[in-house]
User: Fold this.
Amino acid sequence: MALHEWIGLKGFNNLSDRAAMHALFECCSSLIWARRVAMRRPFDTRDALFERADRVLAEIPEAELDHALDGHPRIGGRVNNSSSQREQAAVASADRQVLDALAAGNRAYEAKFGHVYLVCATGKSAAELLSILEDRMDNDAETERRVMRVELAKINRIRLDRMLGEDKTG
Assistant:
């Protein structure tokens, strides 16, 4: 199942365990997250699903958080999936100077923190994303991991919402 397929909350609740985990894994590249969210089905409302997704993300171990990052390309880098392309749409039209600065910032961030710079890019320009990256370089490692979890939760909600589709009744 691809994220462009709208399945609705009822459809999601009715998926097999395997299909539900697959759909969730497309939202967040953590098997533990996908399994723990899927096992709480059925959800009565979209908000209940979002709250469960946030709670599980807050509880997964740091090593598993690193697996969740595997599904996210560098901001401004080559994007291989439609979700990331949509989320980073504004970056594609950025000028070369901003893209070069983002590339250098990504390298510096990864050298300092040991993982990809993760930010909810939806609706943000490349310049905004660069500014956020520069601000976050001042964080210590512990603070940055907390910020990254918050950003990942935002991304997961956007992807879950897209997976469920237009029907906001469920």
